[in-house]
Specification:
The complex is a heterodimer.
Chain A lengths: L5 H8 L4 E2 L2 H6 L7 E2 L4 E3 L4 H14 L3 E4 L16 E4 L6 E5 L4 E4 L5 H8 L4 E2 L12 H7 L6 H4 L2 H4 E7 L5 E5 L11 H5 L8 E8 L1 E2 L3 E9 L2 H13 L6 E6 H11 L8 E9 L2 H17 L3 E6 L2 H12 L1 H4 L8 E3 L4 E3 L5 H14 L3 E6 L5 E8 L4 H20 L15 H7 L4 H11 L22 E2 L6
Parallel strand pairs in A: 3-5, 4-5
Antiparallel strand pairs in A: 1-3, 2-21, 6-7, 7-11, 8-12, 9-10, 9-11, 13-15, 13-16, 14-15, 14-19, 17-20, 18-20, 19-20
Helix pairs in contact in A: 1-3, 9-11, 9-14, 14-15
Chain B lengths: L14 H6 L11 H6 L6 H13 L6 H7 L7 H5 L6 H14 L10 E2 L8 H5 L5 E4 L3 E4 L9 H5 L5 E2 L8 H14 L5 E6 L14 H4 L4 E6 L7 H9 L4 E6 L9 H18 L7 E5 L5 H18 L4
Parallel strand pairs in B: 5-6, 5-7, 7-8
Antiparallel strand pairs in B: 1-4, 2-3
Helix pairs in contact in B: 3-6
Classes of the chains: A alpha+beta, B alpha/beta.
């Protein structure tokens, strides 16, 4: 199994940038997903030249390489399911340039999202994709995953912010893709192909990203609903009204309870709440949009309508949303929150039905699921809460997920809107993308003929996602 | 790898809690050890994974693992920030208990006493955690479960016989090196700001700013684990390297668990006297109390101090 030429790797990146101790390998075998599979060695390159040499060696020796940023992936993207070299990119963490006149910044892949935003803030601009994990997620990982978050409804996902990339290919060659300009016309936009490829086509070593001005005014509103259907209808009406919210979030009763438990925010425990936000340079315009959304909520039986321009008040509510994912683990003492079937996107008009389907499938299969998400971009998150030590609960989860995915496909939704495919969503991905699988396999074979770059992920992952690697949980039969 | 299962009788009660850790990694930004090494195995999440591996027998207990488990500064920032409510320090303490029973004893970040120890017992009396004891025939012994790496013993030892072997960049030598490096490499450099990990941590956690942002930097913030550990030589270092001034940030009165702020105040007062005796304005060293996490206040204090320094100009 482990046939890595360690002296050669040591020569390339230096002793200080290599970990071979079983304890390090075990720890690096996990990310935020349900999986665990240890690499054979962790290598942490300092620069592009080292990445090129590592790749050239791995290609020649046909050793799998898994690039990794913060390790916050939720579908097993950065778990070394086939062993090999784990390429920890955290040392390539320099913000290289902030170019205000040309409205772009250049960064290395290990730069943390929040760090980039802290550096951009003095210039009055921000990098908008902002996944909830922005405090740990690296730009490289976000590119691999095409990450997005609460603001994607207005500002788009990572793919929209990428102007150009420098990528080390499987054979160690360095290529420059894309431009420094806002637009480029015909030809294959290969930089966009790399975005969302989950490290299967190359290793990003530099990214040129656009940014946008920080709006001078932000106003956040909240509306409570007694039924998920009313909340879902409000979402569809808001999106059809011509309003462009900077955030439109749904949280259901399970999520509200979890956030109250952890953060003591005193949120009213209703069937669903909507968080709607507008931002812009003119206060009256922001106010107009928020009023409009508030009126739409009221028309759909929304109650307790509240909104505020105050930064502190907004931040408190927003932090509740940002910490929702870990907070769900405190919902019930006997249950853990697992990242499964966690990021579907469906047409706006189907939001309410989708939420109802999630709860129905959960109840039927003896697990608890929550429905929340960036509904402004059609994204519906869930988490499965269950006793992870019981095999029966896993079986229930599998059935619930299959039912939910079948429904998502039937209404022209997608089974992964934000968190990527990795291993856990591969079966759904293969079903959904069946028409393009051949094309994707051809691209993969052309760029990575020895199949060393993050093998066993996306369309290569096994159909049985529970048995793909060891689970991170101790499961008793 | 499945190995023969060792019984971790204190750790095993945390099995459910370890499953509750959703491994989001949001603890990374809070851990001074991770921020120094950037290895995930030094982060709180890494330790949770390790504890899980030991319990399930998937990872074999080694001295390296024990060393890792004895490494933590108990600042508890990770725990305070964990929305999943994982009591990581309690878990690690129970793991330490098991490890001690299995014959491992660190040291990791727990303190060790050199043979040169004069046995004055000052450290035994000063330890706020009751972790140090004098044992006939052995000298000073440290309880690796009780020791919270606060560094009081290091600070109090009159002959510098006590050290914390794994300091993760928070020891005096490293602070000294970084202060000197900044002051010598930046012509714009004017001040060193010593900030306490308990009351402050920086916005930029793991990334390096572009040269255009840093070439005209006037001050460098060096985060230590307690203002009480800043010794007089370290406070003097910036002045010996042409700094215009030194700002020391500590916790407010009553908030420091081991009166480190009081010790820091005493040293800063002494340094003021030293500066005065050298005909240097004593205001060039200043101490401020910063409530936990109040970044805005800290920045305002830095700005005020820099304004003062700019009025004073360089030391002639």
């Amino acid at each position: 199994m482990n046939t890595v030429d360690l002296p050669r790797l040591r020569e390339i990146v230096g002793e200080k940038n290599i970990k071979t101790d079983p304890l390090d390998l075990y720890i690096y075998g996990a990310d935020a997903s349900v999986y665990h599979a240890a690499p054979w060695v962790v290598v942490r390159p300092d620069n592009t030249g080292q990445v090129q040499k590592v790749m050239a060696y791995a290609n020649e020796a046909k050793i799998p390489v898994v690039p990794r940023g913060g390790g916050s992936g939720m579908c097993g993207q950065t778990v070394s399911s086939m062993g090999g070299i784990l390429l920890d990119m955290k040392n390539m963490n320099r913000i290289l340039e902030i170019n205000m006149p040309d409205v772009y910044c250049r960064v290395e892949p290990g730069v943390v999202d929040d760090d980039l935003n802290a550096a951009l803030k003095p210039y009055g601009v921000f990098y908008p994709p902002t996944p909830a994990s922005s405090r740990i997620a690296t730009i490289g990982g976000e590119i691999g995953n095409n990450a997005s978050g609460v603001r994607s409804v207005k500002y788009g996902a990572t793919r929209d912010a990428v102007l150009g990339l420098k990528v080390v290919l499987a054979n160690g060659d360095l290529v420059t893709l894309g431009t420094y300009t806002r637009v480029e016309a015909s030809g294959y936009q290969l930089e966009k192909l790399i975005v969302g490829s989950e490290g299967t086509l190359g290793v990003v070593v530099e990214a040129t990203m656009s940014f946008v001005p920080i709006p001078e005014f932000r106003c956040l509103g909240v509306a409570n609903f007694d039924t998920l259907r009313d909340a879902g209808n409000a979402i569809a009406d808001i999106m059809a009204s011509g309003t462009i919210p900077s955030m439109l979030e749904l949280v259901d009763d399970v999520a509200i309870k979890a956030v109250n438990k952890t953060m003591n925010l005193g949120l009213k425990e209703v069937a669903a709440s909507l968080l709607f936000e507008s931002d812009g340079k003119v206060k009256e315009a922001v106010d107009y949009e928020v009023q409009k959304m508030k009126d739409i909520c009221a028309k759909n039986n929304g109650a307790d309508l509240w909104y505020s321009f105050d930064a502190k008040e907004r931040e408190q509510i927003f932090m509740g949303r940002k910490k929702l994912f870990p907070a769900l683990s405190q919902f019930d003492t006997s249950m853990a929150s697992t990242s499964l079937a966690d990021d579907m996107a469906v047409p706006y008009s189907k939001m309410a039905d989708m939420a109802a389907k999630i709860h129905e499938a959960a109840e039927k299969n003896g697990i608890i699921m929550t429905a929340y998400g960036h509904c402004g971009s059609g994204c519906m998150h869930t988490k499965i809460m269950m006793d992870t030590s019981k095999e029966k609960q896993w079986e229930g989860a599998q059935r619930a997920i299959a039912e939910i995915y079948e429904y998502v496909n039937s209404i022209h939704g997608t089974t992964s809107a934000e968190h990527g495919i990795g291993i856990s969503k591969a079966l759904a991905f293969k079903t959904e993308k069946r028409d393009s699988l051949k094309m994707m396999a051809a691209i993969k074979a052309a760029l990575d003929p020895n199949n060393i770059l993050n093998p066993g992920k996306l369309m290569q992952a096994p159909d049985n996602w529970v048995k793909a690697t060891n689970l991170r949980y101790a499961v008793n039969s | 790898m499945q190995t023969e299962k060792i019984k971790f009788k204190n750790l095993e009660k945390w099995e459910g809690m370890l499953a509750k850790c959703i491994r989001c990694g949001y603890c990374y930004e809070h851990c001074p050890m991770f921020k120094f090494t950037r290895w995930e195995s030094d982060a709180p999440r890494g330790k949770n994974i390790l504890a899980h591996g030991l319990l399930t027998g998937e990872v074999e207990l080694t001295t390296e693992i024990a060393e890792k488990s004895f490494s933590c500064f108990f600042c508890k920032r990770c725990e305070a920030a964990c929305s999943s409510g994982v009591q990581i320090t309690d878990i690690m303490l129970d793991l330490r208990r098991d490890l001690v029973e299995l014959g491992y004893k660190g040291p990791g970040t727990t303190s060790i006493t050199a043979r040169s120890c004069a046995r004055c017992l000052q450290c035994v009396r000063a330890c706020p955690h009751d972790a140090r004891d004098f044992v006939d025939g052995e000298g000073i012994v440290v309880d690796p479960v009780k020791c919270k790496s606060c560094g009081i013993c290091v600070e109090i030892c009159p002959i510098e016989a006590i050290t914390i072997p794994l300091s993760f960049g928070t020891d005096t030598a490293e602070m000294d090196r970084r202060a000197t490096e900044f002051l010598q490499s930046h012509t714009s450099a004017k001040a060193i700001v010593f900030a306490c990990n308990w009351s402050y941590h920086s916005d930029i956690q793991n990334s390096k700013l572009p040269e255009s942002e840093t070439h005209d930097k006037e001050y460098e913030i060096l985060v230590n684990l307690c203002g009480g550990r800043l010794d007089k030589n370290l406070l003097l270092t910036p002045f010996l390297n042409q700094a215009w001034g030194v700002l020391v940030g500590v916790c407010p009165d009553g908030e420091c668990t081991h009166d480190g702020n009081v010790a820091a105040q005493k040293r800063v007062t002494k340094m003021k006297q030293t500066l005065e005796s050298l005909d240097i304005n004593p205001e060039r060293i200043h101490l401020v109390q910063i409530p936990r996490g109040d970044k805005q206040l800290f920045q305002a204090e830095i700005d005020t101090f820099m304004e003062k320094l700019n009025q004073m100009g360089p030391i002639r």
